[in-house]
Each structure stands twice: as C-alpha cells, then as structure tokens.
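ugh ok fine here u go
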Amino acid sequence: MMDKERLRSRILHKLKMQKEEIRLRKSLKIKRMLFSLREFRRAKMIMFYLAHEGEVETTGMIYDAWSMGKKVCAPVLQTKEKRMIAAQVTSFTTDIEKGPYGILQPQAGCLREIPGELIDLIVVPGVAFDDCGNRLGRGAGYYDRFLAGFQERRVPCIGLAFSFQLLGRIPVSSHDIPMTKVLAA
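structure:
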C-alpha cells in the first residue's frame, strides 16, 4: 500500500489535470446523488465545503439548498488554534473571502458560528476515499478533529469524490474519521 504523502500527491495531480467541463459535469451528477439521499432531504442545516483546487464543485449545491429552504454553513479554519468551526453562509457575494491555504471561507467580519448540535449533515471533501468510507485529506487534520465532535450524535458525513479518487484501500490512522457514505461520479 502506498504511503499517505505519495498517494495524496498522485491524486492531487489528477484533480488539477482534470478538465473543468468534466469536473462540472461530474459534480452535477454527484449533486443529484446527494440531493436524493434521505439524510439530505431531512437536514435543515447542512455544512458544505467550498470547493478548492479541482474538488467536486459545491456552489450550485449550496444555491439549490438555499432555494429548498435549507440553511448552509461552511468551514472556517482557525490556524492558530489548529481547529475548524462552522459558520453560516447566506450569500456568496458578501459572506465569503479567501482564508488560509487559499481556501474560500466565511468572512471574519460577518462570522456567525453555528453550534455543532444544529448541524444535521456534513458534506466533506477528500483527496481519496476507500471502500470502507475512510478518507485521506490534505494532511493538516482539520476535518478529522472537527468530525470527531460529531461521532456521538452520528451526524451523517457524506464524502464527495470523482471516481479516480475512490480506491480499494487507503492508509488509515487511529484519529481518521470514516464517512457515512461516499458519493462519486
């Protein structure tokens, strides 16, 4: 089995090389899968990631979730504390800015932190996923530390990926939090 760093580098390269039109077409298929899930239909507050560097696109998903009356929050990285919080997003034009690592996130000036107990569903990015729902992230551990707080409540965590990000088995550490489901196209 390939080590995490080599595997991460290989898949990140594939993400960057994928043509934009293919990324958007596959993202639309994944959106349809997500929106058909019972967990999605029941959720009132959904945490979406804001796509970065070739990830499955979530902007259209967020707009459609808003039009369905759902509330949306997104991750905010707090690098000094090495933690991630969820903050409500109500607009892409006024609420979003570039944060650490160039990742879009809710603006510090209008941050409305959402308590974990109000989040019904978490949509999670990943570099790779395996058949057991294990996830390989970008290596900083923000998502695993954040998701650990949702294990007891069993909040559904849905990983989104392209088919080349699905592997039979990936290296797993004791702190890694598996996904409830992984949707891919």
